[in-house]
Amino acid sequence: MELRQLRYFIEVAKELHFGKAAQNLFVSQPALSQQIQLLESELGVELFDSTRRKQFRRVELTPAGQVFLNEAHKVIRASQRAVELTRQTAHKGTLVKLGIYKMLLRERIVEILTLFSEHFPEVNIQLVELPTYISVQEALVEGTIQLGMTLWPLRLDALQGHVYRKGHLCVILPKNHRLASEAELHLNSLKKEKWIEIPATLHPFYTQVESIFQQAGINRKASITQEVSSLDLVGELVSMNQGIALVPILFDWTRYPDILVKNIQWDADQHPLEIEYAIAYHPEHLTPRLKEMIQTLPSLP
C-alpha cells in the first residue's frame, strides 16, 4: 500500500466522481481506477459500492470504505507531520548571520525578523551590525555573514539579491515652517534652508544627494548646521526648529507630531531619489534553507 493510493482514494471519496478526481490529481481516469482496484484487492474489501456504480452510475462509499477513509486521513496527516518534524530536527539550531548596517531603518529590520521567525521558527537569526550597506556586501563576499540587508543596486558583481521594498527620500520640516502649506517642495525653494544631516561616512545616499543639489545650483554643504548619526535625533532636531532634513519616507515619522513630511517636486530632467531595500547573498554560499528563506520575501509588482 502506497501513500499515493491513499491520496487517490481520498480524492475520489471527496468528489464521488472518478473523472473529477482524476482531473484534480492530474492522472488519467483508467490509471486512477486501476490504483483503486489494487487498493481494494490488497485490503480484500470493496471501498466503493460496485453495484450502485454499475446500475446507477453513482459513486458511493461502502461502510468499510467510510471507515477506511477516516483512517486514511489519519495516515496522510501523520506522514505530513513526520516530514515536518524530520525537517525541523535537521534544521534545529541552524544559525543564520544576517548583516545589517547602522542607518538601516528599524522598521525594515523588524519586518524581516518577523517574517523569518514566522516561517522558520527553528532558525536562529544573529544580527551582525556593520558600518554601511557596502560593508554588508563586502561581508557577504568574505563569508562572515550568510544574508545581508542592503540597498539595490548591488555594488559587488559576485552577489545576487532580492528587492523586497521600495521607497524614496522626502523632506521633513517643522510645522511652523514657511513652506508648511506647500503640498510638494521644489528644490529651488530650499536654497536658503539650514540642514540637519547624517555624516557622509554613514549616509547611504550622500553622494547622490549632493550631486542633485549641485546640479540645481544649491550649495547644501555650507548650510549643514548639525550632523548626527541617527534618524531619531534628526527628527528631534527638526522638531526643535534647528533645520530641515532629507530622509527616507518609509521611516515612521508619525511619532514626531511637530514635523511635516513633504515630497519633492522633481523637474523633468531630474531623477527622484528612490530607495530599494534588498536581501543580498553570495550564490556560492546559498544553502537550501537560505534559499527557502529568500523565497518567503515579498515580491514587488
Describe the model:
- The chain is an alpha/beta fold and 301 residues long.
- It has 10 helices and 10 strands.
- Strands 1, 2, 3, 4, 5, 8, 9 and 10 form an 8-stranded mixed beta sheet that branches. Strands 6-7 form a two-stranded parallel ribbon.
- Strand 6, helix 8 (206-215) and strand 7 form a beta-alpha-beta unit.
- The chain starts with a helix and ends in a 6-residue tail after the last helix.
Q: Which structural category do the helix and sheet elements fall into?
A: alpha/beta
Strand portion: 15-25%
- SS summary, helix count: 10
Note the run of SSEs as H and E.
HHHHHEHEHEEEEHEHEEEH
Distance between the termini: 45 Å
Number of strands: 10
Please tell me how large the radius of gyration is.
30 Å
Fold blueprint:
Blueprint: H1 3-15, H2 18-25, H3 29-43, H4 50-56, H5 63-91, E1 94-101, H6 106-119, E2 123-130, H7 133-142, E3 147-152, E4 160-174, E5 184-186, E6 195-197, H8 206-215, E7 224-227, H9 231-239, E8 245-248, E9 259-265, E10 274-281, H10 288-295
Parallel strand pairs: 1-2, 1-3, 5-9, 6-7
Antiparallel strand pairs: 3-10, 4-8, 4-9, 4-10
Helix pairs in contact: 1-2, 1-3, 1-5, 2-3
